[in-house]
Amino acid sequence: MRLFEHLALLAPVIVIAVGALIALVLIWSRVGWESLQRREHPWRVLALSLGFIALIFVLSALGVRLPRE
């Protein structure tokens, strides 16, 4: 019962936080889309960006660590 009381008290905070996160994602995706449309080769830029993200994901999944200074 105590868990539900905590959830009821935190519900407005959770709703506001999720709404703010969704708003940020929508704003930045629109900014990215408009920026991508202004490029000379938008599909090349998109492919390179996704390839870079995939490379980081694969290296992280394999446990590769970069040397620290």
In brief:
The protein has 69 residues and is an all-alpha fold.
Q: Helices and strands, in N-to-C order?
A: HH
Class from secondary-structure proportions: mainly alpha
* Overall average pLDDT: 90
How large is the share of residues in beta strands? under 5%
Helix share, percent: over 70%
Tally the beta strands: 0
Number of helical stretches of at least 4 residues: 2
**Principal-axes shape call:** flat
Largest beta-sheet details: none
Rg result: 20 Å
Q: State the separation between the terminal residues, measured CA to CA.
A: 51 Å
Uncertain residue segments:
none
Structure description:
The protein is mainly alpha-helical. It has two helices and no strands. The protein is flat and about 55 Å long. The N and C termini lie far apart (51 Å). The model has no long low-confidence stretch (mean pLDDT 90).
